[in-house]
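Re: export button greyed out
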Amino acid sequence: MQHVISTALPAAHPLASGRTAQSPLVRALRGDRPETLPVWFMRQAGRSLPEYRELRVGTQMLDACLDPELSSEITLQPVRRHRVDAGIFFSDIVVPVKLAGVGVEIVPGRGPVLDAPLRTRDDIARLEPLDPAALQPIAEGVERTVQELGETPLIGFAGAPFTLAAYLVEGGPSKDHIRARTLMHADPETWDALMTWAADTTGAFLRAQVLAGASAAQLFDSWVGSLSLSDYTRLVAPYSARALSHIDGLDVPRIHFGVGSGEVLAAMRDVGTDAVGVDWRIPLDEASRRLGGRTVVQGNIDPALLQAPWSVLEAHVRDVVERGRAAPAHVLNLGHGVNPDTDPTVLTRIVELAHTL
Amino acid sequence: MQHVISTALPAAHPLASGRTAQSPLVRALRGDRPETLPVWFMRQAGRSLPEYRELRVGTQMLDACLDPELSSEITLQPVRRHRVDAGIFFSDIVVPVKLAGVGVEIVPGRGPVLDAPLRTRDDIARLEPLDPAALQPIAEGVERTVQELGETPLIGFAGAPFTLAAYLVEGGPSKDHIRARTLMHADPETWDALMTWAADTTGAFLRAQVLAGASAAQLFDSWVGSLSLSDYTRLVAPYSARALSHIDGLDVPRIHFGVGSGEVLAAMRDVGTDAVGVDWRIPLDEASRRLGGRTVVQGNIDPALLQAPWSVLEAHVRDVVERGRAAPAHVLNLGHGVNPDTDPTVLTRIVELAHTL
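Workaround output, generated via the alternate export path:
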């Protein structure tokens, strides 16, 4: 396979545990204020990039995730183009679910769709543990990527158990995730079995990425905003902690991100992460207040502003950075993933601006 | 047309402004604590009822809304069945949009879908004001309904301008409403024109219902949870206030409801309403705290619990009622609309329980 753009990266560096320790991203996640404000974008690898769209022609999404050459190249594309301070491994939160034998595909324009939703005790009892050998294409994709990235850190990621469970129970994307939220109350034992399986499956996926060389780990609980604090604390957080326990003892900082997470920010921090990702709904100074002023924050440029005139967007980015100073450290990012119709030159311009602030 | 169930209502009462003034609902909305805790359910008229599904066979949703005999009968069905303390007029928030000449249909399982999204300054400049004469089928549906309801109040309702604008700009339901949120920042003048039109169109729809006999009015801002407080206050709230100004001088209490509205509760109250509807994400005592302890609350049974065992649901309803005591008054409701697959006997049981609390 040919790299569509292949000039802009530093030469390959040997793998070494300390190779990214001095990077702005890792330093910020550890609570430091590096000279350069680190910036990356959720979903930076993907459809906003013409070189990605070209590379994906003829390949299904989950097949691309399981092809180490492709997943690595796609991960590197936005790092070359935007000169962001981190790559995030190109994959999907349902990849470990698929590798554990659950029938699921990513339907374009819709998201993950299961062959059949899992709704009963029997459905869930049939789930198989993930065979670690199945994660080999992930490990290989990460290894290739970090060799190319050199001193630029790679972020490994995984979906949190609740978000996975929402897809599994609903059978696909859903509004309010009411069937999943019903199950947690209607049949707590089945919920426990499902969430335990999800935690161990996604935890193994995250561990494989870190062992293969990722320098940080982000847990995405995309749908956490549908929960009350009480339900989150009692029926969700313990499983997120269990997922993260799979990387205990591996010395990488952890980020935890959710959409609409204003009510549960501190509880998300308390499952055992170093930094909390904040969407666009609350400003970072308010987020930091809710976190007791002692937690690193990531975010929170409103993706809706990416299509506003540059003067409006620039003022917003500067405001985000200014409010981020309320926290011990800040990693600049969007408040949600890059939309496919985003003009990628705008993202590059944000990186250039961030590196002057 | 035959009424499917037609026995359980009190005999028709003459229309009179004071006919529902002593009802538990109206008293609670005015800040009183009536002997009976008033209860009704958002989307109580609809697909959860077999008598509704029977009546709707062969009729499109928006055609049903514009047939006074049908809209009235559908509105009355849940009042007869559940003995709730209010009817809510059977309609849809896009009805006034359609009556103003915009091509829109309700697609089953999806929601309102426009013939073409409205995204440019020119699209929006072409919007026509709503001819008051077009509201005649609404007024007639309400008049028929209140004659049957007697001392039981009817709630009129309308969608808030932001929620309407989200449908208009996106062309249908959407996640995060990013195109609408982009427009408000990218082209504030066009946003102002769109929101002003939406406020006047939906305001006229609400006014027609109140003039025809509705005893209360609810403004639904379903998608308000996608907004930051800053955007809401600056770019949305003024238009919600404008919509409600259409019923200034008509002496009915006003309820304002949004989903995921924890960040904007007090700002929603401040557009000029008497009561605030709260979804399931925050408990009513916390909602009341955010409202300064001086605002009537409505809600907030979690719809996800409607399929839990009765003992779990009963404990939840009792907890909601107990926490609602933190507010000056409380109207019991769900935190969101009744799901179509809800067992309606559960709703009846909640009403029976509420009336003992």
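The radius of gyration of chain B is 19 Å. The button fix ships in the next patch.
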